[in-house]
Amino acid sequence: MHDDLSQIYAEHNSWLKQWLYRRLGCSAQAADLAQDTFLRILQAQQKAGARLSLEKPRAYLATVSRRLVYDHFRRQSLARAYLEMLAQLPDVFALSEEDHYCLRETLQQLDALLDTFKPVVRSVFLLVQLEGLTYVQVAQRLGIGERTVKRHMANALEACILCDDEF
Q: What region holds the RNA polymerase sigma-70 region domain (predicted)?
């Protein structure tokens, strides 16, 4: 199973790093995301229990990498917003470096958890938790039933609780 991926890695890793470098402008980040791309493919391959058979490996690598670049920029944006919010707090609420680190770590874990949700579940969770909408308002906005909203929130909250138990 790994032989096909090893061959694709050997043949296309340099190309992928250059492709990522053109999008990121940083060779270290490009190398990290290239490794993440192959790791993601390996995990998908192991989960499916099937060999990787690609007619156009570069197109496939670019698709997987594009998603990782998107996630990378989204996390950067989240970190920037967090730092901007902290900069606006009065000195009385200033956090230690350790607290900053813990909060950023928690935000990254939450972001990773949200990535595992189906889009509708993620939307329900964010609308309730960030925008403070009621279940009825969420149901109207998304065009789904209130019962469905409750079920999605229950699933999302359960995932958050289980995730919290892991840390």
A: 9-77
